[in-house]
């Protein structure tokens, strides 16, 4: 949004609660990146509250945070960049009414977003190979960059999937495979997920969109500024954002237009905390739908272990250090009927396990009655060092329900003195049926590779960094918070452009879709502003 508005000549102020890290700040330190608050806040300073069902008890956690820094979760993402498929835009029409779900179609079709997928891939820098297959979403041309080099095990996956009559597909990545627009190509260090990229090869918005926006001369970035509320005038138009600056001093930034993009959980929290006489239940929340219909991504995982000392003679490629597998299976994205208890399935993404050593050691040690120490732990660690571990992750549909939502809890406040986000989870049983099915199919693939061991990690999880739905867009103000342009029905100069707008999450990581939609919304907003169709609040004549 800031990039397109800046390019069009409008003045923009970007408020970011976290730091503006530079490439020199991204070091391969697991304690710093994964066990401190470099990216995620500490739960005793900025907790989220999570409970299972409305009768459950809230627990403090840092779940459902993505990252507090310029670029957000795209800074430490793994960068698996998929497009949604046409069916994801019309899932309610395809499946019909699903009992226990608040499922809804999108107010736009895939064809309306497709051109902006092209824009997003080019602006971010996406590497991949588009191959024809029965489940391919339409696209006009190749990816901007050729695919990254892959480990030889990718060919093994291609072979066994072919033998099974399934399709092993190249996974596009938000990592550039060669120099692109002044950025260096990937160095194949294997530390993508959970880390920032010191090379600038990962296509987080900190490496592309934000520098380009600042280069327009029309965009000002203010890091370490925590938004407290969006203020409105007596007519209900957004007039300013009140925030705490880097020194903890309260400031107020007037604006002609306010664009919120804090993640689905945190955007809902900001709007619900923005209480006024005009909006006593929270900004743009006359319908009571802000924070409702929260959806994550269903998650499952299994791992296959190959002992290098036992298998390397027959499979010399096991010792190849290449970090990327980059293979996906989408044969079960949409099932022809409900014989397995569901129709909307998902994606299997194959990868080597993350090389973080502390994380691995903690897992090997176990806990409780299954915990080990001393010689038993050392034996496990020696075995681990002699292993290559191939895993798959399930990206499954997470059906919206009336029982999964975000509110704010006035009795629990963060270090800024603001009521925290409180998440209630009540999953739909179809999610679990689909995830179990997908895990079983992934395990069939792993077993065809003849591993020494296979372990099922989980079949009933959720990926909370992929979050959506809390400000659902639609044509009817009675059933949605935003219109099809992601503008609030009740506040004509308020936009929300993170995953909050999505009525369904799809069965793939949603990062690319969120960016593509932001370009779509920005195009419309620029047009409206050039035509002077947005009337500012008399007290909010600030930057666009």
Describe, in plain words, how this protein is organized in 3D.
The chain is of the alpha+beta class and 544 residues long. Helix content is 23%, strand content 20%. The protein is built from 12 helices and 17 strands. The protein has helices at 2-7, 30-34, 91-95, 110-124, 153-163, 209-215, 264-273, 308-311, 357-365, 375-385, 429-448, 511-530; strands at 12-15, 48-52, 59-61, 169-170, 219-222, 226-232, 238-244, 250-254, 258-260, 295-307, 327-329, 346-352, 387-396, 405-413, 419-425, 453-468, 494-496. The strands form 5 sheets. It has a 6-stranded antiparallel beta sheet. A 4-stranded mixed beta sheet has the order 3-2-15-14. Strand 7 and strand 8 form a beta hairpin. Helix 4 (110-124) crosses helix 12 (511-530). The longest helix is centred in the C-terminal third of the chain and has 20 residues, at 429-448. It is globular, with a radius of gyration of 23 Å. It starts with a helix and ends in a 14-residue tail after the last helix.
